[in-house]
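Section 3.1: Structural characterization of target chains.
Under the original work plan, the team committed to producing a structural model for every single-chain target entering the pipeline before any wet-lab resources were allocated. The record below documents one such target. The sequence was received from the expression subgroup and is listed exactly as submitted; it comprises 254 residues.
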Amino acid sequence: MLNIVTCFKWVIDEAYIKVGASRELDLEWADYKLSDYDRNAIEEAMRIADIEGGTVTAVTVGSSDATKGIKDALSRGPEKAIFINDPAFTDLEPSQTASLLAEVIASRLQYDLIICGEGSSDLYAQQVGPRLAELLDIPCIAFVSKLDIKERQVIAERKMEDGIEVVTAPLPALVTVLPDINSPRIPGLKDTLGAAKKSVISIGKEELTGMAKPHLETTAIEAATMERHCIKFNPDAEGIKQFVDALLKEGVMG
């Protein structure tokens, strides 16, 4: 029987983001969703639990109003959730998120395996998983495309440029998984209704010793732009030369 922890994040749904006239992001009407990569992490946790036997606990850090994210995560299978929340827990850096997760997981949970997504749909910093493993002093295998458990060991496959790398590590361990590791389930009405009956442990800022200090300062967030010159090149030798010359002039080729 394995005690599995899976971490997830409630993020802004990019489909609802609007761009203002000055390229500023308008988030007034933005909706939120479970991070795409974390859906794979939860699904993989459930798959391993079904094969090996065990329990799955979903853990997240967020603002106090992110309760819809808890219900969404629980509707995908985990038996319970831990909600580390405070109004100040918004726009946290990966180091801060990892420190909060580490404190709660280390003090309140028994764990054999921790599964995280490779990154989050908003920041995609790919740091929370490795930082969490470092703070818990356990092995970390990142960017896993196939995962198995055998004789208290994690057996993970990672796709490399020249082949498949197989990595093993003793439990307890942490892995971050790629989206191609599985196809996340789509919760049905019964799953959604059942999620409301599952246990949720809420942990406030006052119950924690603190979190890592921020190291970064966000000065502005602007939408990306794409400038089109609308230049057409003929599909002949002279046209190809003109195309290459244009790229050289723009500095996109050296």
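The mean pLDDT is 91.
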